[in-house]
Amino acid sequence: MRNNIVHIGAGELTYEIRAIVEIAEKMNRFGLKTNMENIGDPIAKGEKIPQWMKEIVADLAMKDCSYGYCATKGLLETRKFLAEQTNARGKAQITAEDIIFFNGLGDAIQKVYGMLRREARVIGPSPTYSTHSSAEGAHAGQKPVTYRLNPDNHWYPDLDDLRLSIKYNPSISGVLVINPDNPTGAVYPERILQEIVAICKEFDLFLICDEIYHNLCYNGTSTRPISDLIGDLPAISMKGISKELPWPGSRCGWIEVYNADKDPVFAQYVQSILNSKMVEVCSTTLPQKAIPLILSHPEYPLYLATRKARYEKYANIAYLLLKDVPGIKVNRTNGAFYMSVVFDRGLLNDQQTLAIENHEVRAMVQELVAAPGTSLDKRFVYYLLASTGICVVPISSFCTDERGFRVTLLEMDEKEFTQVFKTLAQAIGAYLCSVDRCAVIANEAS
């Protein structure tokens, strides 16, 4: 090319959650049967949408108004409905004008980070959902800035690390919190959220809180919406219907903006996000029309409670099957529908393997793990997939120095779900014991 046309942040745009699918599909062509535990799509794993919800959507599809544009911010009646819900539940008082709809939170995330001044950084958790870290890194053209989530403390944020990172990096202008968390399944108690809010106020930062899983908490845990705790702090909450209803194919999410009137710079920033959306005209109309009808339906509370009960049951099955496996750290999932498992430091090496029966698949894995830069947990993920057919995501792809994997709790068949985690437990043990640890330790010492 005459000129370099590649964006400065292009190298930060990664999404291993879907990238691993291409590898699985290649192995499928060689006859390997796979169990996809990588993507948080309840529909793909067989979850059934109730008839009453389908009838709402079907009825809307028969109305001409569902096929037209809506206002750039979104349908006024839906924004009013959501504002009333927030005001009834929490302390923050917002209006319909404080809500902006997007084509899924992926769209919202790209706009929220993309409209920041390049020098302004948002510090996010580590590990973190890769759409956030990729978008933040891409906007700045640098590696994401992060604070540590501690696997030895329920995956809660290391608040000392957060404070020091902010103190010694003056470019940090905002803090990201994901609660309940993806990829760890942690649910943050109120005291932690209050401390994060206090840190933001101390350093004059704004707060982004991804709350798309907010109504999917269980195992006796509870949390507070960030709108309850921020006071006059400028903040953005991210919400949507892809996980809760669930309707991921709707591509329908929104942000709620708090305290834009408290800071003129923040107000100008929010206006730029809206202007960016205005260039696209608007977001999808039909899902917005469905939101008030579905969330206010008399059967919705029981439907949601039933789903949470199933995730709670499966979270406990998974935890009981993995918690005593030597060499890994496992925390019980309390929200969303993911579990992150990390290996004890120093246990992974580039000599460990699992038995692979299919010689074509074996050759493919040997080529994959020989590629430069292949992380040790991605190496495990490749061997796990080829040996057992279980497809998970390496935790290193979630912007962290930890090494392990994320797995979903979405398999509908309890017998199949239990077998997946029994197989995982066996595979972890076999992989860690597949080389002579004494020889490895001796080599490290020399």
Supply the key terms:
single chain, alpha/beta, Aspartate Aminotransferase, domain 1, Aspartate Aminotransferase, domain 2, 2 domains, eight-stranded mixed beta sheet, four-stranded antiparallel beta sheet
Walk me through the topology.
Blueprint: H1 16-29, E1 35-36, H2 51-61, H3 76-89, E2 99-102, H4 104-114, E3 121-126, H5 130-140, E4 146-150, E5 156-157, H6 159-167, E6 172-178, H7 190-202, E7 206-210, E8 235-240, E9 253-258, H8 264-279, H9 285-295, H10 300-322, E10 328-330, E11 338-343, H11 359-369, H12 376-388, E12 390-391, E13 393-394, E14 404-408, H13 414-432, H14 437-445
Parallel strand pairs: 1-12, 3-4, 3-6, 6-7, 7-8
Antiparallel strand pairs: 2-9, 4-5, 8-9, 10-11, 11-14, 13-14
Helix pairs in contact: 2-9, 3-9, 4-5, 10-13, 11-12
Which sequence of strands runs across the widest sheet? 2-9-8-7-6-3-4-5
Which parts are unreliable, with pLDDT below 50 for 5 consecutive residues or more? 436-442
Q: In the CATH hierarchy, what is the architecture of the largest domain at level 2?
A: 3-Layer(aba) Sandwich
CATH level 1 class label of the largest domain: Alpha Beta
Overall 3D form: globular
Helix fraction bin: 40-55%
**Strands, count:** 14
Describe this structure in words.
The chain is an alpha/beta fold. The chain has two domains: 10-47 and 301-445, Aspartate Aminotransferase, domain 1 (Alpha-Beta Complex); 52-295, 3-Layer(aba) Sandwich (Aspartate Aminotransferase, domain 2). 41% of the residues lie in helices and 14% in strands. The chain contains 14 helices and 14 strands. The protein has helices at 16-29, 51-61, 76-89, 104-114, 130-140, 159-167, 190-202, 264-279, 285-295, 300-322, 359-369, 376-388, 414-432, 437-445; strands spanning 35-36, 99-102, 121-126, 146-150, 156-157, 172-178, 206-210, 235-240, 253-258, 328-330, 338-343, 390-391, 393-394, 404-408. The chain is globular. It starts with 15 loop residues before the first helix and ends with a helix. Residues 436-442 have low confidence and may be disordered.
